[in-house]
Amino acid sequence: MSFEYLTISRVKKGLEEKQFSCQELTDYYLKRIDSFKELNSFITVTADTALAQAEKIDEKISRRSKLELLEGMPMAVKDIIMAKAVKTTAGSKILADYLAPYDAAVVSKLKERGAVILGKNNCDEFAMGSSNETSAFGPVKNPWDKQRVSGGSSGGSAAAVAADLCVAALGTDTGGSIRQPAAFCGLVGLKPTYGRVSRYGLMSMTSSLDQAGPIAKCVEDAAILLNVIAGPDENDFTSSTYEAEDYLSDLNSDIKGRTIGVPKEYFTSGMDAEVEKSIKEAIKKFEELGAVVKEVSLPHTVYSLAVYYIIMPAEVSSNLARYDGVRYGFKSQLAKNLFEVYAKSRSEGLGAEVKRRIMMGAYVLSAGYQDAYYKQAKKVQKLIQQEYQKIFSQVEVLLTPTAPTAAFKIGDKFDDPLTMYLSDIYTVSANIAGLCGLSVPGGFSKEGLPIGLQLLGAPFEEKKILQFAYNYQEATDWHLKHPNF
Amino acid sequence: MSITKKEIEHLAKLARLELSDTEQEKFSKDISSILQYVNKLQELRIDQGLLNKSVIKPAASRLPREDRVIGMGSSEQQELIQQAPEKEDGLIKTEPVF
């Protein structure tokens, strides 16, 4: 039988009914990872441990017919998430040989449920980028058009799922890094509410915004994975004590009479005409499904990106101080004293975008500027949170595009950071306002590139956005199209 | 809003980075344009009173756990130390502070 583009529930059924063995399946993905190396979507492939795990699963299947939800599921994990004894680089030269000493909470949860981890996905360096071009291991190619970026920063995870090099993957999202690559690669990407998923074992970028979540082939798979990774964790003080829900049950709840808000501020001049056409068609589709769509206004949302580009670098400059050439990672051989150990190791080990953000953070936090920049940004953040809170008392979810354009060409925006930053303009509000958000396939451009739709929900309302997305997915067939590469 | 070469040098020192002349020039241009963009926050006059009134559903209502030493086995300890670029006798080695 063909293994192509299997979803989680399809794999589970196949394994339980012995249509194929877990070793055959794992072998299929490992061979594909090898055949499509040119996509550059993996930094490390853990073939041996994956095959050993697959063998164990096959033994289990021979003894009993029912499997746990993720037992034998070949998956991949973004290389900013730690997996014990596996090289975890965060896409940076400074950690090129770093072996993670423990499992991130999300990795432990995958392992506990029996997932087979195929390897670690390429990503922008320390998740700082919107195109996967800042990785020290080179850019990832988009399977839909290899001249184009796969999005970022979870670009390797998205390309790997889109190219069927794994069933699904985990990424992280600080300003759009799960949703935007999912949109560029024609997939479902879910950023849970801050606090919904433990950050224990994620290499910190912006601790007040970072969140891990799934990149998957369909809405059901995203819901299944959220079921596995969500929940409180005593190792992460910022993880919420609210118990996780069952995100899979009632996924098909009808959306008749339920309200969707479309924020007019998102329809800016930067929006590509084809993206605008897709979102308008999606609005019609939701109306056909019986949802009530209304225009809403979020006047301060236009400030989200500016707030992000102050809070994020401020936290980056503190978080990345730990890469000092002493405790772990790369150490410069040219250093003659302690200051030079710090400065030379960091200068040789970190890439340009990371340095730019550290510098920007040092600036907004420096004496004389902190009030004008950082404190003002925190106030505006609160204003934006209030505005979204008010809107969510009027509508259940918000519908917007995920990104202003489809995937752009590799190299096109690389030299102009501000233009690159604008790729996150629609996704960043969810992080700033503490919302949950997902991207679902919403059509194709004339050139055959996927376009993503974004659904935003109030804090901890993942279930709602998943329900709306599922209803839309079932009424369309965008998610069933696969790239030819 | 533009940022001078001298400011860039100062920031680099604060951030423990050594930048080449080309990097200094590029970053001074890039950071100036980013600052120009984020400066739009300055146009907002925010009523602190209104801001304080709002109730935002907290993401976490976790109480701090008891402050206790969890401890770590010596093999685990050595695993962490093994990650350091230079070590001696099971300790991390670096240049003298003074």
What is the top-level CATH class of the domain at 8-255 in chain A?
Answer: Alpha Beta
Q: In what range is the share of β-strand residues of chain B?
A: under 5%
CATH superfamily of the domain at 8-255 in chain A: Amidase signature (AS) domain
Strand content of chain A: 5-15%
CATH topology of the domain at 5-43 in chain B: Histone, subunit A
What would the CATH topology of the domain at 8-255 in chain A be?
Amidase signature (AS) enzymes
Helix percentage of chain A: 25-40%
Largest sheet of chain B: 2 strands, antiparallel
| Overall shape of chain B | flat
Q: From the helix content, strand content and strand pairing of chain A, which structural class follows?
A: alpha/beta
Rounded to an integer in angstroms, the radius of gyration calculated over CA atoms of chain B is: 23 Å
In the CATH hierarchy, the architecture of the domain at 8-255 in chain A is Alpha-Beta Complex
Number of helices of chain B: 4
| Bulk shape of chain A | globular
Number of β-strand runs of chain A:
13
Widest beta sheet: strand line-up of chain B: 1-2
What is the residue-averaged pLDDT of chain B? 87
Question: Which CATH architecture of the domain at 5-43 in chain B?
Answer: Orthogonal Bundle
The ordered H/E elements of chain B are: HHHHEE
Distance between the termini of chain B: 39 Å
Describe this structure in words.
The complex is a heterodimer of chains A (about 475) and B (about 100). Chain A has about 475 residues and is α/β, with parallel strands linked by helices. In chain A, about 35% of the residues lie in helices and about 15% in strands. Chain A has 15 helices and 13 strands. In chain A, helix 2 packs antiparallel against helix 3 and helix 7 runs antiparallel to helix 15 (about 460-475). The radius of gyration of chain A is 21 Å and the shape is globular. The two termini of chain A are about 20 Å apart. Chain B is mainly alpha-helical and about 100 residues long. In chain B, about 45% of the residues lie in helices and about 5% in strands. A two-stranded antiparallel ribbon of chain B has the order 1-2. The mean pLDDT of chain B is about 85.
